[in-house]
């Protein structure tokens, strides 16, 4: 049975830096990275950068990820008999196998710089699922920017964590989950220390948030 499908089509990431009012635009992860296994392997790795487990009841597995014609499909399936995950000193029962990929590149917002993260997603809102398109710190946590999360409530969430207890979270209605929606997240140096984050869905600005001290902190996608 298919519980989760969250394909990305047309995933394109550009890095933007503005030294001395000169605009330099560079594509960090090309649109063609989902076109073939060799293109994929040049840009992406399977599972989380730190392994197969995180803070939920799903264990990541390469078997749950397929790419075809520029679209990535992730499918979760119910499993029994997996050993529990361990997170924050707690054991978490593993009830699903699912999939995740991460960009091999790390994203470090430098002074005057920033990145645009773009993707098209068809994400389920089925209760119990949690597809996500997100950034998290390489050298500690936070930073975390949840560029889009679907928590099985029928809504889409946009969040930025300053500390484990200081989080700005915005949930909005998610129209027609059976169709692809464009997500774009603009992450920019704000003042040499903090970043400003603009969240767009289908080209509409939904929310602006700030990440405290995220400049110079490399992030995983
Ligand atoms: C996070 O930090 C930024 C920059 O200092 C601040 O503007 C924002 O209000 C903070 N957000 C939360 C949720 O604490
Ligand atoms: C982020 O980039 C800046 C500017 O290139 C560099 O000085 C800094 O060391 C980088 N930070 C990390 C943690 O890689």
Task: Write up this protein.
With 221 residues, the protein is mainly beta. Helices cover 3% and strands 48% of the residues. It contains one helix and 20 strands. The protein has one helix spanning 37-43, and strands spanning 8-17, 24-29, 44-46, 58-60, 65-68, 71-74, 77-78, 85-87, 90-92, 96-98, 101-103, 113-121, 132-137, 144-149, 155-161, 167-173, 181-189, 195-201, 204-211, 219-220. The strands form five sheets. Strands 1, 2, 5, 6, 12, 17, 18 and 19 form an eight-stranded antiparallel β-sheet that branches. Strand 1 and strand 2 form a beta hairpin. The protein is globular, with a radius of gyration of 17 Å. The structure holds 2-acetamido-2-deoxy-beta-D-glucopyranose (2 copies). One 2-acetamido-2-deoxy-beta-D-glucopyranose (NAG) is lined by residues 108, 110, 216, 218.
């Amino acid at each position: 049975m298919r519980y989760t499908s969250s394909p990305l089509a047309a995933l394109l990431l550009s890095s933007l830096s503005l030294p001395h009012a000169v605009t330099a635009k560079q594509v960090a992860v090309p649109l063609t990275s989902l076109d073939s296994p060799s293109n994929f392997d040049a840009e992406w790795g399977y599972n989380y950068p730190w392994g197969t487990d995180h803070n939920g009841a799903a264990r990541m597995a390469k078997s749950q990820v397929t790419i075809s014609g520029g679209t990535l499909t992730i499918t979760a399936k119910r499993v029994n008999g997996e050993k529990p995950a361990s997170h924050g000193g707690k054991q978490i029962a593993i009830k699903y196998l699912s999939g995740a990929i991460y960009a091999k590149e790390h994203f470090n917002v430098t002074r005057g710089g920033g990145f645009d993260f773009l993707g098209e997603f068809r994400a389920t809102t089925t209760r119990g699922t949690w597809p996500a398109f997100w950034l998290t710190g390489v050298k500690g946590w936070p930073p975390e920017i949840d560029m889009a999360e679907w928590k099985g409530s029928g809504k889409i969430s946009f969040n930025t964590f300053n500390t484990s207890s200081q989080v700005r979270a915005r949930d909005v209605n998610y129209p027609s989950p059976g169709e692809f929606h464009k997500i774009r997240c603009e992450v920019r140096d704000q003042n040499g220390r903090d970043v400003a984050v603009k969240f767009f869905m289908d080209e509409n600005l939904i929310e602006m948030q700030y990440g405290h001290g995220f400049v110079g902190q490399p992030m995983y996608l």
